[in-house]
Q: What sequence folds into this?
């Protein structure tokens, strides 16, 4: 398992530049998208990474490529998340970083047609999954007297209405509240709890939503990046990438963010901070 460490084919940064040397991290939803990009960045920064996902083939391949472990983990099942934490403890004797990143989009459509079973199915993953992650990571950190860090994936949709389905919006707003209350309780143990709120990052989740909404099955990552850059960002032409989010998660996971807790780090090119439709007032 550790055979890549210290060998010439490793792709780590030089030791002096590694921000997570020897840290043990779990990334839920780490098989692809933002989670996978974060797994690579964590590895490059010297962390031991456990990918916890339901995409077994992708997750296993990624874990192998970064000297990590994969565990099949449906975050809506508490026992699966508890098991992922146990794997970290069995493997390295500690858990330093929990990235509660797994999530799904939808159900689409009007609030007047919202089926409660669809809402509950989404909450089981997006919200209960995060509750499970915070609960079991915090237990391991408290029992191990290890002041680790917990990061949760919220969304720009939690800040501004109209960016995602009702169910998804509800789940992401709830995560912000849960992260803040958890930060209040866990701060006495030195455990930091923060959120990242990505926006318009062309992962599989966003690509399939855009293809559906725009009825353009041929849509490519670059097309979506362009749409977001032109219409969903104050930084004209600049949309977000999975790497942007991974770097923000790295910051929150590292000692660089040692005094940051209860925070929501928004990665949206400023979109939810202001409206540039009236920027003519700045002319002259
Ligand atoms: N892409 C964006 O623009 C954006 C914006 C805001 C928030 N987010 C959030 O970022 C997170 C990552 O999403 P992404 O954009 O990389 O999408 P993605 O679909 O590429 O990745 C989501 C990952 O979660 C996994 N997953 C789904 N259900 C799961 C379950 N029940 N148990 C375990 N794993 C499960 C998937 O298999 C996948 O690997 C999500 O929480 C998402 O809501 C994304």
A:
């Amino acid at each position: 398992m550790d055979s890549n460490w210290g060998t010439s084919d490793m792709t780590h940064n030089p030791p002096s530049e590694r921000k997570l040397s020897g840290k043990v991290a779990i990334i839920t939803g780490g098989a692809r998208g933002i989670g996978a990009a974060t797994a690579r960045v964590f590895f490059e920064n010297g962390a031991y990474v456990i990918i916890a996902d339901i995409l077994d083939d992708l997750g296993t391949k990624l874990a192998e490529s970064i000297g990590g472990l994969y565990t099949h983990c449906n975050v809506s099942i508490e026992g699966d998340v508890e098991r992922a934490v146990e794997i970290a403890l069995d493997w390295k004797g500690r858990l330093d970083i929990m990235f509660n990143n797994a999530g799904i989009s939808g159900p689409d459509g009007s609030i007047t047609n919202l089926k409660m079973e669809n809402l509950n199915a989404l909450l089981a993953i997006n919200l209960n999954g995060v509750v499970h992650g915070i609960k079991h990571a915090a237990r391991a950190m408290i029992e191990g007297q290890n002041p680790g860090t917990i990061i949760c994936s919220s969304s720009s949709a939690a800040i501004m209405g109209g960016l995602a389905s009702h169910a998804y919006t509800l789940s992401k707003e709830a995560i912000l509240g849960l992260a803040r209350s958890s930060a209040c309780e866990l701060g006495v143990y030195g455990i930091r709890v923060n959120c990242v709120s990505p926006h318009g990052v062309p992962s599989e989740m966003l690509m399939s939503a855009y293809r559906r909404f725009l009825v353009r099955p041929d849509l490519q990552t670059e097309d979506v990046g362009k749409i977001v850059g032109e219409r969903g960002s104050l930084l004209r032409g600049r949309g977000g990438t999975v790497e942007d989010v991974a770097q923000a998660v790295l910051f929150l996971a590292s000692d660089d963010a040692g005094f940051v807790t209860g925070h929501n780090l928004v990665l949206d090119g400023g979109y939810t901070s202001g409206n540039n439709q009236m920027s003519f007032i700045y002319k002259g």
